[in-house]
């Protein structure tokens, strides 16, 4: 009776035990379902994050590719431009003869530098002329200078005795050792006192190709063995 009474007094324990066991099973199912849902949710989050990250990085990838392409294109454009071929400067051969038809001059050209006094040398032969070899050759840019004697020791005319008769427009020619003929036209004639010759005009730099002829002129001083003046003929190359 006491046992029955006990069962009647506490009928809920048995039901409670059964309900408790069922609740555990439900909780297990819920836990597994929740875990599975969480896994799916996490995967979806990672998938979305991957897509988002890819969209962010995509412009940088294309930008890098475009930069590489642009750089390669620039390099190619630079490398295909051919280097300009330098124009060779024509060389002028050494002068051999001086021709002035108006004065009937056809003379050999000697080469001189400066003498012991620092003055331009003169030709050894009174019928020859002398080119100042430390300056430009005739037909080269600058002032080429050729000197000749006015007269001989005996007083007879030398090669440039009649140089003062040249006028503007008269022609002067030189023949180089390679046979080329260079023709110059007289542009000016000047007579200077022997100690006032403008050396810069005669020997200095000049943008064109000029040939200057110089000789003595005027009154002869027997004491100094020198003439009072110098005649200078300026002429420019006729380009052909």
UniProtKB/TrEMBL annotation:
Pfam families in UniProt: Sortase (PF04203)
Transmembrane segments: 44-62
GO molecular function per UniProt: hydrolase activity
Keyword Glycosyltransferase among UniProt keywords: no
Gene3D superfamilies associated with the record: Sortase (2.40.260.10)
Keyword Hydrolase attached: yes
Keywords tagged on the record: Hydrolase, Membrane, Transmembrane, Transmembrane helix
Protein name in the entry: Sortase
Native species: Candidatus Roizmanbacteria bacterium RIFCSPLOWO2_02_FULL_36_11
Lineage summary: Bacteria, Candidatus Roizmaniibacteriota
């Amino acid at each position: 009776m006491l046992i029955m009474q006990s069962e009647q007094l506490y009928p809920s324990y048995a039901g409670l035990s059964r309900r408790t066991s069922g609740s555990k099973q439900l909780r297990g199912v819920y836990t597994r379902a929740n875990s599975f849902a969480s896994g799916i949710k996490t995967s979806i989050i990672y998938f979305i994050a991957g897509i988002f990250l890819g969209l962010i990085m995509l412009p940088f990838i294309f930008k890098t590719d475009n930069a590489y392409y642009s750089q390669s294109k620039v390099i190619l454009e630079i490398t295909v431009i051919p280097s300009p071929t330098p124009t060779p400067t024509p060389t002028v051969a050494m002068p051999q003869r001086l021709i002035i038809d108006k004065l009937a001059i056809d003379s050999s050209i000697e080469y001189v530098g400066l003498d012991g006094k620092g003055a331009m040398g003169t030709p050894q032969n009174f019928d020859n002329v002398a080119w100042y070899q430390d300056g430009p050759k005739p037909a080269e840019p600058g002032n080429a200078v050729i000197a000749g004697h006015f007269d001989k020791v005996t007083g007879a005319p030398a090669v440039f005795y009649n140089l003062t008769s040249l006028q503007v427009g008269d022609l002067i020619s030189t023949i180089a050792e390679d046979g080329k003929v260079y023709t110059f036209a007289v542009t000016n004639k000047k007579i200077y006192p022997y100690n006032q010759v403008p050396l810069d005009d005669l020997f200095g730099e000049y943008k064109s190709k000029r040939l200057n002829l110089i000789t003595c002129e005027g009154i002869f001083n027997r004491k100094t063995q020198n003439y009072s003046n110098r005649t200078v003929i300026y002429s420019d190359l006729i380009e052909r």
